[in-house]
UniProtKB/TrEMBL annotation, chain A:
Record keywords, A-Z: Phosphoprotein
Name of the protein in question: Response regulator receiver domain-containing protein
Sites bearing 4-aspartylphosphate, chain numbering: 69
Domain Response regulatory: 11-137
Keyword Phosphoprotein: yes
Top-level taxon of the source organism: Bacteria
A single GO BP: phosphorelay signal transduction system
InterPro entries the record matches: CheY-like_superfamily, Sig_transdc_resp-reg_receiver, TCS_response_regulator
Record-linked PANTHER family: RESPONSE REGULATOR RCP1, RESPONSE REGULATOR RCP1-RELATED
SUPFAM superfamilies for this protein: CheY-like
Automatic annotation (TrEMBL), chain B:
Protein name: histidine kinase
Catalytic activity: ATP + protein L-histidine = ADP + protein N-phospho-L-histidine
UniProt keyword Membrane, yes or no: yes
InterPro entries: BphY/WalK/GraS-like (IPR050351), CHASE3 (IPR007891), HATPase_C_sf (IPR036890), HATPase_dom (IPR003594), His_kinase_dom (IPR005467), HisK_dim/P_dom (IPR003661), HisK_dim/P_sf (IPR036097), Sig_transdc_His_kin-like_C (IPR004358)
Lineage: Bacteria, Pseudomonadati, Pseudomonadota, Alphaproteobacteria, Sphingomonadales
Amino acid sequence: MNASSNPQSVNIVMIEDDEGHARLIEKNIRRAGILNEIRHFTDGTTALDYLFNAADGPQRNGPALVLLDLNLPDMSGTDILARIKGSDGPVRRTPVVVLTTTDDKVEIQRCYDLGANVYITKPVNYESFAQAIRQLGLFLSVIQVPDLDDGR
Amino acid sequence: MLLIAGAMARSPTLFVSPRESPIGKRLTTLMSIGFLALVAAGIAAAWMTQRNQVHARWVEHTYRVENAIIDLRRLIEEGETTRRGYLLAPDVPLLRTAYEATARDLPVRLSALDALVADNALQRRNVVELDAQIGPIAAARAQSIALVDAGRVVEARDLFHTETASRRMMAVRRTMNRMIAIERTLLAQRDAELRDAVHAFYVMLALTGVLLVVVALISLAAVLTYTRDLGRSRDTLNELNANLEAIVADRTADLTRANEEIQRFAYIVSHDLRSPLVNVMGFTAELEASTQQLAQLVDRAEQEAPHLVSEDARLAAREDLPEAIGFIRTSTQKMDRLINAILMLSRQGRRVLSPERLDLVALVENIRDAMTHRLTEADAEIVIEQPMPDVVSDRFSLDQILSNLVDNAVKYLKPGVPGRITVRGRRQASRIIIEVADNGRGIDPRDHSRVFDLFRRSGTQDRPGEGIGLATVRALVFRLGGHIEVSSTLGEGATFRLTLPLSLEPQDRSE
């Protein structure tokens, strides 16, 4: 995110099937002052296609950060997580923030086991939700995303 | 459940043994017949013995008659012999005395014979005839003896030659033979009678024997049939039991499946309901923020260009919008709490129970310690009546149940009365009864079953809550294989009575 130290801007890949959630997340991230491009996908297939095959996707070009919802219409978010963390390309090093409604302990454990970097439960209470997203935005603004060249 | 009830209602008719009384009656009848046959055999034996005795007496009688006749005959012959000897040798006095003895004895013997045959008219006639025949012989003998005594031996011998003694003797012998023959015939008749009697006895014995054997066979057959029937009904019963178990197992599996389905359904529904709710709440917040902007705009417009602001616009910005947003907010918040409750319930339903030995006293003490602060605040105390039996159950569930009950008791105290909450437990057969009693405000009896329903509450709604606690308690108690009931009158406290199995079977249900 640090545009000054990293000339390539970091894309935020948001995989979220609920348009409303996506909008709220985007709004609150913007409110936190994050201006990076947010690519929004509503299903797993196109999201994976972008991650692995797109010209400006994280596999081929540019660092990225994934915001992942677990409840998707076509596949489970954990499958996407497994695909990302199980691949042997640079995508593997992409930080994944799981942002979902599920607060099931088993699910949380599984996500971390699969290599999720952060797991955040969407609070149903909107104030908490907005605050969580804003804090996430602040968090995003300070974390370091691995340089793609390191993997090559 | 209806199907199970149906099966239960149908089966009892098959458990009744319809043969119990008829077999008893039949066996009694058969045994009576056998007993009567034995009695008949005994009577026959007695009758036979008596017949034998009578017969023996008659046989003896016959032989005595025969003996008497033979004796008489011997006497007559002896008399003749001695007379002849005396005629030939008058000088032998021995012959004379011998003759006299026989002559003296003869009438005695004859009358003895007469006495013996007194019962038989025919024989008596024969005796009379014999008497008539013997009379002349005796007279002739007496005459010849008298002649010899008088020394007229020659005259006596002449008389002997002329007399018809031998012919008379022949007649006497004939009569005697006839008498003996008659006695023999009588004996033969009596023998035949005895043989008939013996025959009848044997026939009767044989009949009785046959009857007994038949009775025994019928009884045996009856007992065998009965035993076989018993065996058959036992088999049927076993089969029914097995079927019943299978039916129950089937139904239980169905119920479990249905229950799991409901749990899953509740979980999915409540989970998926949260997503749209986030949107509703989120955009309501956005709307609220926008409304504030709008209100500020209206305020400014009112100050700077009042003619632009209509009454409707002012009302909308200042009252209608904030009111609508407020209602949306409180409703969504409530909905959120309800969804969370359902989610929690369904999650508890999916939890795998792990039974372990629990010290109830320690468990309740923990609960008490955890709420010390609240207890002081509410001026209440928890009394744990010791000892309480140990129980093998799921720690988490039981802790939740008791926590909820104690929590409720503390929550609904009677204002102004120091709270006293008593927890006690006792064993009853293979179950444990735990009671949580308080002196709080109590529950209206009309609401006793309602309070366990989800989202239902009783009494004055002056305490926070959604009506979830007791629903959770009941769901947990059911899962632990127990049941819960409440007894209470309004204003006099409530007692929640919890019945649980002493030992919970471990289950291997995966989530």
